[in-house]
């Protein structure tokens, strides 16, 4: 027995509607935390954060500001409250430092996140976390360069697949280099 005319014409419409709903649902479930690929090697920042002073002179450990590096998918950019932990007391020793700290104070007073511009990112199809690198005692500067000498942070390594695979293979002991390590 054949389906009646209205049922035959309704079937393609139902298939299209179902496909659209599946695509919309998949897009809604897609993780949004992945960053856009950064083009500029050393982007201008809203505040001139001087890693050479904070890390080089004052010996502030990377994990003090990037406190989520060992517990999260991303090392994270510190909230303004982290900066204010010190800068409510430290106001800068030069007019240049004082100007930058005044900008920081403005963000804190207005309860606005500092709109830092990302320096490092990986493509959306790469699953990267700092956790295994920290456990393997990979030094931050192995990937991020010697920030103790950087007035403004710049991308020190390409963070390409070839660069990462070479590092994994050259590590002692070698780190996993199969596809599923980063693509899952």
Describe, in plain words, how this protein is organized in 3D:
- It contains 8 helices and no strands.
- The protein has 184 residues and is mainly alpha-helical.
- Helix 4 crosses helix 5.
- The longest helix has 25 residues, at 5-29.
- The protein is flat.
- The termini are far apart.
Please specify the SSE layout and strand pairing.
Blueprint (H helix, E strand, L loop, with lengths): L4 H25 L21 H7 L4 H4 L14 H8 L7 H15 L21 H5 L4 H5 L16 H10 L14
Helix pairs in contact: 4-5
Count of individual domains: 3
Q: Evaluate the radius of gyration.
A: 24 Å
| Poorly predicted tracts of residues | none
Helical content band: 40-55%
Strand/helix succession = HHHHHHHH
Q: How many helical elements?
A: 8
Q: Which structural category fits the helices and strands?
A: mainly alpha
| Sheet having the most strands | none
In one word, what is the shape?
flat
Average of per-residue pLDDT values = 86
- Count of extended strands: 0
* SS strand fraction: under 5%
Compute the separation of the termini in Å: 47 Å
Which terms summarize this structure?
3 domains; mainly alpha; 0% strand; 43% helix; 184 residues
